[in-house]
Amino acid sequence: MRQIEMIAVQMEDGRMLDYRKQIIDILRLRDKGMDIAQMEQAIEAIGAIRRAGAYAILEEESYELLLQRLKETSWQIADPAILKFDKAIKAAPQFKADEEPPYKQWEREAIAGAEKEKVVVAEEARQE
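RESULT FIELD:
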């Protein structure tokens, strides 16, 4: 399974590159067409993207389809935001189905760090 963050980044011309919308478009549209089996695969992956919150979780088959379609995509403009998008998809963290997605671990670590910071601040305030 793979985890992809659903963010939007600003391009140099001021427009936003919305990862969710871009991934859906990459999966929905294909210049050379697709057969029914490929369409079913694309629809399944699109459903996972649409249902996602801040992070999309894709089965390995859906992720491989996305990588294939991303490779086939021809971009109309050159922009660093597109390169960032491409790298983010290709570097999507992998985890096993019986494991917790990486973002949940990151959330726990952030909460623990915030709690630790509160304790330090409280101790410093008490010492003053």
